[in-house]
Design a protein that fits this description.
With 125 residues, the chain is α+β, with helices and mostly antiparallel strands. The chain has one domain: Heat Shock Protein 90 (2-Layer Sandwich), CATH 3.30.565. It is built from four helices and four strands; from the N terminus they run ααββαββα. It has a four-stranded antiparallel β-sheet. α2 packs antiparallel against α3. The protein is globular and about 40 Å long.
Amino acid sequence: MEETLFVHQRDPTIRSTVLLVADELVSNLLKYGFKEGSEQHSRLNITLDDDWLEIELRDNGQCFNPLIHAKPNTLSAGLSERQVGGLGVYLVLKIMDETRYEWIEPWNCLTLRKRIGEKFDDCKT
């Protein structure tokens, strides 16, 4: 990303969002989505225009819809009662404005969009 997207995109908010989302999605895919020894592929596509940041992850790992599994059961529990992990995908989905998942066999297709630009700036005031 340093040699492609971030060469022209210097906004620290966009940069941190892309890094957080990409890191969380890819690390979870590698930890839980792929099985050892099988033919596995993934594709991360990041699109940015004046109004939207779009991050799309496609993979042929295990079928998993993060939109229905995102909210941890222990979210309302005290810190000492919570299990380690489980908040990353939830956090990623909460910071995005639009989320969409499709299973197009054998592909998990997750698309996340965040409003940026003038329309986003107007909402901040």
